[in-house]
Amino acid sequence: MLARAMADDASPAPSASAGRGTVSPHHFSWDEVLRLAAANIFGETTRVELIAGEIFTMPEEGFLHVDVVHVLQNWLFAHVAPLGLSVFIREPVHLADGSALIPDLCVFPGGTDARGMLAARALLIVEVSDTTLKHDRDVKAPRYANDGAQELWIVGARARAISVHRAPLEGAWTFVDRVVTGRTASPLCAPGASFDPATLPESSAE
To answer: Which residue, among 155, 162, 81, 171, has the nearest Cα to 119 in the 3D structure?
Structure first.
């Protein structure tokens, strides 16, 4: 009896392919995220992004973040939109792997609609970083590059500086330039327009 029990214990466990007792993650689609948002699962004011099937909730924006976005948005509408390009504010940019990232601002060819907002077609993406610098730089920037976005600006709200990213290659930006006050940044899609970081609002205690 003891030998039989030991033999039973030594028998192989059911394989994962048997479909019993397996644990697997559920990767969300953007349509599912939209349905959850419509059901108010995330709350009325919470912003979410979808990265490789995972839902990320974004922190609440402070006054400085909002003010910096406002300055940049006005500049884009004044100097870039008149060239016949489309400027979007906090709209999802879709990636080839199904991810949906929501930059603060982005520029696409004129006439682009929501379905055409693919990172591969983006002329300029602007991420304003206050408390999200590491996420924007280490998580989102490589994904924009991997899909071939033309240009990315990561704007340091407190530093009043712009990290200009260009020439994406295999998930990396081969050109990165930090533009600080005293210099100007001109997007590739509007080379005649210059933005001076000195025009960004200064930080103060919130």
So the answer is: 171
